[in-house]
Specification:
Blueprint: H1 2-42, H2 46-50, H3 62-70, H4 73-104, H5 110-119, H6 129-139, H7 145-149, H8 156-166, H9 171-179, H10 184-195, H11 197-212, H12 216-221, H13 230-233, E1 238-239, E2 242-243, H14 245-276
Antiparallel strand pairs: 1-2
Length: 281
């Protein structure tokens, strides 16, 4: 009887695992399908795209060359890289200092201020477009890198993420550091930051990804090729006479390549930062 129960339990476990793997596989296929469609479309001819052929008869890698030469994409890539790196640096600087203040400093009204700070996450980003645009215009920053970086170097979500990660660090480390004559800045730089590399990498990746894929705001504030990022550059293929879909997909494939490469090398730290954030505090 016990053997029969064990067999039934193993059978139920196997069926459950099979169902879970099936659902996860279907979800993975759904997630990958747009990227597969993009790659296949980038290798088609204009006729094949118009007739909705699924698989191209000939792989036209020349579409990538045509897309690269259709506009100054080297400049667009450089603009996006510069803006994204500057935004990451600004977000890390402000988020680290703010998260440390909310985690380790004691001051009057800290919890209320943090609650109000989190409440700003409920404000739709579209409501900030006009105030930000008016501010940027009065500062004379239209069509500059400042306009694409300064408004986004403070992130409530990233402050919250780092604060939760800082809360997992034992306070005994701070007490020992104080006994050794360590101040707040030295404690932050020499102890906190080395222990929080996964969280910092997570914040950096999220910020880089958001800045790299940003379209609406750069489309408003960038007016020339000297400051136009790659996402705005993709609109070059949208013309009154029609859209060169195959070349646009080729350019889009080249656009996501840096993100894929960065995530490939940093995925371990990224997953660790997400999984360990919020375990305490």
């Amino acid at each position: 009887m016990d053997t029969s129960d064990a067999r039934q339990a193993r059978a139920r476990h196997a069926i459950t695992r099979g169902l879970i793997y099936t659902v996860l596989s279907i979800g993975a296929l759904i997630a990958v399908a747009p990227f597969v469609w993009m790659i296949l479309t980038s290798l088609k001819s204009y006729r094949e795209v118009a007739t909705r052929v699924v698989f191209p008869a000939t792989l036209r890698f020349s579409n990538y060359v045509l897309a690269w030469n259709a506009a100054p994409f080297a400049r667009y890539f450089a603009n996006s890289l510069f803006v994204s790196l500057c935004t990451v640096a600004g977000v890390l600087a402000t988020s680290i200092l703010a998260a440390y203040s909310f985690s380790w400093l004691n001051f009057r009204g800290k919890d209320w201020i943090f609650t109000l700070y989190l409440a700003t996450m409920m404000i739709p980003g579209q409501l900030l477009l006009i105030p930000n645009f008016l501010t940027i215009t009065r500062l004379g920053w239209i069509d500059t890198y400042w306009a694409q970086t300064i408004p986004w170097i403070a992130s409530v979500f990233n402050v919250f993420l780092l604060k939760q990660f800082f809360a997992t660090i034992p306070k005994d480390l701070y007490d020992a550091a104080v006994l050794d004559g360590c101040g707040h800045f030295r404690y932050l730089v020499q102890i906190i930051l080395p222990l929080c590399k996964p969280a910092l990498i997570t914040v950096g990746l999220n910020t880089f990804l958001g800045s790299w894929n940003s379209l609406q705001w750069p489309l408003i504030v960038s007016r020339s090729e000297s400051t136009r990022p790659i996402q705005v550059g993709l609109t070059y293929f949208l013309t009154e006479s029609g859209t060169d879909t195959q070349e646009m997909m080729a350019a889009a494939a080249m656009t996501i390549l840096p993100i894929v490469i960065i995530y490939f090398f940093a995925q371990k730290q990224f997953m660790e930062g997400i999984s360990t954030t919020g375990l305490k505090g």
